[in-house]
Amino acid sequence: MCLDKAKRLKNYINKYHLNNIFSPELIKELDIVEMRENSYITCQSSRLTHLYVLVDGKLKVEFYNVNGKLFVFTFATPLFLIGDLELFHSRENSFISTISTQEQSVLLSIPLAAVKMFGLTDPRFLEFICKQLSNKLFESSLFQIGVFLNVEEKLKRFLYYNSKKHGSLFLLEKRENLASVLGVSVRQLNRAIKSLNEKGIIISKNKKVQIIDFCSLRNDIEF
């Protein structure tokens, strides 16, 4: 590994305290992977050879069912682990989802063989995986199975959850992608955004949204 790359890797390790997650043996196996915007990291059913940790940028996680219908699961920001679900799934040798970059991104790759040798016997690494899986389960339950929620309530949940992560001002996803995450149509989503604007709960312009009334946004939301 060149000196500049080694220095960048060390910076990411220090920034995210990865030495508290990965053993020295796994740290030695880490490599930096740089991806341009709209690049595919994994494709559904592609072979699992590495786990990846997102340390910079943004990802889209999506899935095509047997009928070819697209579902967008989530939009991921650091730290986000790719391959944790597959590691313990019956389809261990292939990725379940298609994951692409939404902007220029940086990931740390870990060979699957190293994970099996050094990670699966390390309590710190296993705790990290459990937290990642827990977050994925929480997001799935938050946005996908709210069958008794109307469109506006689903949108309020999404906005509130993202405001807790990114603050009161953040960028919205493309309407088609966001509608897929919430399980609604783009037309329904646009109506809900307009309604929240008219109620003074948010101000949205172009791709940006600002939360104005947190109390109203959180009203009737249970986590």
UniProtKB/TrEMBL annotation:
Keywords: DNA-binding, Transcription, Transcription regulation. Pfam families: cNMP_binding, HTH_Crp_2. GO terms for biological process: regulation of DNA-templated transcription. GO terms for molecular function: DNA binding. The keyword Transcription regulation applies. SUPFAM superfamilies: cAMP-binding domain-like, Winged helix' DNA-binding domain. Residues 33-116 form the Cyclic nucleotide-binding domain. Residues 154-218 form the HTH crp-type domain. This is DNA-binding transcriptional activator YeiL. The lineage of its organism: Bacteria, Pseudomonadati, Pseudomonadota, Gammaproteobacteria, Enterobacterales.
